[in-house]
Design a protein that fits this description.
three-stranded mixed β-sheet; homodimer; 2 domains; 5 helices; DNA-binding; three-stranded antiparallel β-sheet; 135 residues; alpha+beta
Amino acid sequence: MTNDRSLRAMPRRTRQREAVAELLTRHPDFISAQRIHALLASSGAQVGLATVYRSLAQMVADGLLDTIVSDSGEVLYRQCSSAHHHHLVCRSCGTTVEVHDTQVEQWAESVARAHDFADVQHRVEVVGLCQACAS
Amino acid sequence: MTNDRSLRAMPRRTRQREAVAELLTRHPDFISAQRIHALLASSGAQVGLATVYRSLAQMVADGLLDTIVSDSGEVLYRQCSSAHHHHLVCRSCGTTVEVHDTQVEQWAESVARAHDFADVQHRVEVVGLCQACAS
DNA sequence: CTTTGTGCAAAGGCTTTGCATGCTT
DNA sequence: AAGCATGCAAAGCCTTTGCACAAAG
């Protein structure tokens, strides 16, 4: 074998994977597999739903994507190169505000440290009613 | 009609609902509907799965339960009388540490206020590797 | 007696998987 | 040529819903 075992095989370059990756690059926010599939279909790219799921699974395994689970149970994907931030979501109209804030990050760190946890990730969702919907 | 429309009808008292409520009272942490159903079954109480789901939906609507969605997409329920806290979870062995901390609460409040959001809830998960699993 | 709750089974939505075929390397 | 990737359809989970029957008030 001519490989270095420390490096995993790279996924093959296919039209479908490129399409999924490209869409995720263009799309800055969390999006579901179903929606990705629909968007690709409506923009002419023929990609099977199963392939979308498999591509996403790959990218998640490779650490290229962040995932969260929506309230309805759908998994949402986002390219994780984008700066880490959290969302403030209106539960009525769906308006989303990005929150960049180091406080939570520090909090998560300190909690982890206090309990000797390593390699921590955190996930924060704040849901409420925006001014417009509160009235 | 003899009712005051401001009060919603109270759910009827049935063996099944009591069983579900009682189990949730005994169980201090988040638990899935499926698991509730299984536990009830194995402890002799005959409660249909659909009934478990409907009972839970009721209690959620009545504000008696908190819910979160697990990574696998299952909805987890918890009696919300218990003090609000967050979990620090080991992604390897599943060990869970309850974190009582006012910092995050305050952070969520301030973020909400800064964006004129009302009636906010928040959900925080910190996942990492505990000391034992990190070695 | 009227209304609400229950059970069962079927249906729904998201995701995964088996298998034959096609494409990348 | 060899092996991973794709597509399709079937199957798997969790959850919801339709309908007839049972129970609560």
